[in-house]
Amino acid sequence: MFIGIDLDEVSIKLRLDGCLLSDEGWQEGDAAWRSYADPFPAWTFADAAHAD
After folding, report:
1. What is the dihedral of CA 33, 36, 37, 41, to 10 degrees?
2. Angle at the Cα of 17 from the Cα atoms of 26 and 6, rounded to 5 degrees
3. What distance in Å separates the CA atoms of residue 39 and residue 19, rounded to the nearest whole number?
């Protein structure tokens, strides 16, 4: 569940689902995971502090 104003729940769910590992991906280990594309934009703690 996502709560917020003007959230695109479908887009967020699709991005989160895209982060799930397959059995094969899990077997590759963290060295391979570091090479995976990050589907989320970069953010900093300063971004989170000013999210209001």
Report:
1. 0
2. 150
3. 8
Could you read off the pLDDT of 5-37 as tens digits, one per residue? 888 888 888 888 888 889 999 999 999 988 988
Q: Do 39 and 19 contact (CB within 8 A), yes or no?
A: yes
CB 17 within 8 A of CB 11: no
3-state secondary structure of 27: helix
Cα separations in angstroms, 9 against 1, 3, 4, 33, 37: 8, 9, 10, 26, 21
Q: Measured between alpha carbons, how far is 11 from 40 in angstroms, rounded to an integer?
A: 11
Whether the pTM exceeds 0.70: the reply is no
